[in-house]
Here is the input.
Amino acid sequence: MIAEKIPPDPKTGLCVIPDRDADVRPRWEKENGVPEGIWDTRIDAGLLTDALDVSGQARHGSGTGRLQRRHVQALLALDHHPTLRTLLEAQSDRDDERAQDEDARSADQARALRELIGDEEAQRRAESAENPNEYHPKHNPDGHDFEDCPVCGYETFCVQGLDMWGRGGFGQCVVCSYRRSPRGADQEGYGEHLAWLMGKD
Here is the structure.
């Protein structure tokens, strides 16, 4: 049915549904070079048909009906369309909640450790701290300087990588052991990125 309504692209074999909101996308998307067509929905009708045939074997008792990863990916591609966007959003929401829970738990554990070791020991650790991922133009060009830890306040947070927006880092504090995950860093960086974009307008 899809292939009948939307002729497949002769190069890719995919049926492409153009983004219906392309003309009203935010200005920052255009100014920041978001690739054209990134919001289009690309459907592999042939692969989806094959997935129905394969799964039908199990439904009718004529085979195992085991779907392959490529079948699942073709199904998830449908989720790109705004009227069908539920699977990826639900998974993203679960990942966000899990990251928030992990961050809160890590912060609680770090505060407990900070209280346990006391001010004197925390100060000693901070003064003697060595950055295991320190930036060096030759030996470690992907490294980073220490940042302030949001829990203990010392400039001893070892950044192991940046969030997808380039606003902050994920890693671990070498004093209180607070750990920020990549997902948690992405969430925090997204808020800062939005604030930056609104400040440009």
